[in-house]
Amino acid sequence: MPAPTSLRLSLRQLEIFLAVASAQTTAAAAIQLALSQSAVSAGLKALEAHYDVMLFDRVGKHLVLNAVGQRMRTQAEDLIARARELESELTGHGQIGDLKIAASYTIANHLVVDYLTQWLGVYPDAKVDIATSNSPDVVAQVLDHQVDIGLIENEINHPELELIPWLGDELLVFCSPTNHLAYSASVTDEALLSARWILREKGSGARQRFDQTFARLLPTMRIYLEFRHNQPIQQAVEQGLGLGCLSDRVLRPYIEAGSLVPLKLSENYRMQRRFFFALRRAGFRRPAVDEFITLCKTSLG
Question: How far is CA 200 from the centre of its chain?
Fold first, then answer.
């Protein structure tokens, strides 16, 4: 029986390849990997030379994956993910519960901590990293293998993305108690068009749902202020600067305290939605991810 051929492909070469594929320059990849630019360039050249293949096309100052590189990327990401999982198993110290999570602002600020408290009760030594962003940016981090799982506020379709339904939610239009619309039995379209609006930034889950719901009125609406976070919207509306639209989960304590008032709108403007777990469709999934999803789905939201 012939002796097995030794493996010439190294995990370091794959890490360099993936870093360049993500950063599109050897200089940026070097920063990401904490290596010198010359070491990154040499590693990439060695990989291509050994297998007599080109993986990138040079477009201006950037290195862009060609067809061969694109096919290799998915397999390389899967292999590196498996290697990291094996490393965690070998080193022990509670890493089985380690998680990297990206969550939209509303979910991160108003939901995730409760679930993580339960998670750390099971894995007290686990390291959990949470990155916050709007839903499209969360999805980008999931697809780029930067995190294990994403938690997003609206449905985003992508061929490489798997969405698992989670909690129901509703967006409410609200105002200050001193606003003349605060206690109206119903609010007309004319009133909505004459009001100033203070909203989340474009691209956020809340803003996408708002724009879809008010598509007919949107071209002539007075968008006064836009914020990336919920708190400045809540504060600006509370001070009487205009109308806002945020999740019921965010507004509930302020409504109960009487500092904000939900408006009574036409049923056509009801904004029910669902939160989702966002995962890569293909490749290796760490067991901790499925266990975390189960914990979230079986706990009260």
Answer: 16
Cβ neighbors of 246 (< 8 A, separation 6 or more) are 106, 171, 172, 174, 200, 206, 230, 233, 234
Has residue 89 got a pLDDT over 80?
no
| Nearest to 106, CA basis, from 65, 166, 187 | 166
| Whole-number Å distance between alpha carbons of 246 and 244 | 7
The string of pLDDT tens digits covering residues 166-223 is 999 999 999 999 999 998 888 999 999 999 999 999 988 899 999 999 999 999 999 9
What pTM was estimated for this model as a whole? 0.66
Residue 26 near residue 63, CB atoms below 8 Å: yes
**Calpha distance 233→236 (Å, rounded):** 5
Amino acid sitting at position 222: R
Q: Are 295 and 301 in contact (CB under 8 A)?
A: no
pLDDT tens, residue by residue, 99-145: 999 999 999 988 888 899 999 988 888 889 999 998 999 999 999 88
Domain limits of the chain? 11-91, 94-301
* Averaged pLDDT, 284-293: 87
Q: Residue 186, by phi and psi: left (phi above 0), alpha (psi -120 to 50) or beta?
A: beta
User: 86-95 b/e with 16+ CB inside 10 Å = b?
Assistant: eebeeeeeeb
Q: CATH assignment of 94-301, given 3.40.190.290, 2.60.120.920, 3.30.2350.10, 2.40.110.10?
A: 3.40.190.290
Could you please state the CATH topology (level 3) that the domain comprising 11-91 is classified under: Arc Repressor Mutant, subunit A (1.10.10)
Tell me the helices (H) and strands (E) count for the chain, helix number first: 12, 11
36-45, 93-102, 170-179, 254-263, range with the lowest pLDDT: 93-102
Say how far apart CA 84 and CA 90 lie, in whole Å.
10
